[in-house]
Fold this sequence. Notes:
Structural class: alpha/beta
Order of helices and strands: HEEEHEHEHHEHHEHEHEEHEHEHH
Number of helices: 13
CATH architecture: Alpha-Beta Barrel
Radius of gyration: 20 Å
Mean pLDDT: 96
Number of domains: 1
Strand order of the largest sheet: 3-4-5-6-7-8-11-12
Amino acid sequence: MSSYETLQGHATSEGTRKYAQRAASQGRPAAHFKTFDDLHLSSIGMGTYLGQPTQEDDLAVESAVYQSVKSGAVNVIDTAINYRAMKSEKSIGKALLRLVKDGVISRDQVFISTKNGYITNDGDYPNVDEMEYVHRMYIQTEVITSDDISSGYNIINPNYLAKCIDKSLMNMHLSAIDLVYIHNAFESWNQDVSRQQFMDMLAKAFEVYEKYRAQNKIRYYGMATWTCFRVPPGSHEYLSLEQAVKTAESVGGKDHGFRFIQLPYNLAYSEALLLRNQSVGSEKSLTILEAAAKLNVGVFTSIPLFQGRLLGARIPDYGGLSDPVSKLVQFVRSSPSVIAPLIGQKRPEHVEENLKVANLPPLSGDEFKQAVKVLTSQPL
């Protein structure tokens, strides 16, 4: 049994710049990398949601992470503690150790994000299901009570979130995680508690994240969401991004770590671009992308291919693109305020196909407006 190894450090300005420069020297366009908070991040990220908690998929995810990072096209890797019952995190950890050992990268060149909040079991113990795992690990040991679990199987109790961060660090062999999101929290709790109660719970969650920031165990935190930023203001499921940022300010001061959100965005779910549902200060009728820019919050987006469902859609050619994956990804990665869409990929041929678009720069502002007109029949 080899001794447990930890990769020290986190993504840095210098490290990510080095990654981007090497990619450019290999022929990737410089514009493939976006700069946020002085980090140079690839405009395509890799997601690790898909797959079963099997050994076969463990190896596939590990290989896909290795291949994606080595390609020079991806230095953003996204996961969650509950993806494949912790096994996605473990596969990422193995891939990162190999990438560093093989001299492909150093830890400071890659940006790693995970999420916590949902209940999960540990896929290395497949006979223990989620509820039994939570009962044994957290309820019996009085870390939480059963009342801390929402009807959406989500837990925001600060003790639980702290345990999740500790576990994620261990799963991925990291001394620090670049970004930790609270995972679909409002979606999982809005049936159970009032809006005010939720904001109070969110503040306590942010306190945990700020504590871990102070210990250099996480760098940033954020909210990974499903519907709350994509519905009209009158909706029961609606959340104001400005209010979430103010909650972070109340906990961490002006220098708080709440700097990122994640939400679904693709040609079927185009609300991020077209729905004017946010306000910042006296400015009303902003899209979530516009509000994020004003609040200095970076945006990552999920399901650019709608888990493959959009691949069969008849999408008009635009911007010199004809293959369906490139057409879908180029639209999202060229959207203002979006750092990167996160693409789930496991098979080597998918990695290759998904990363083809990294050979092109994102669309310019005018080209993007033209593409929106072609793709959505709506002028921006």
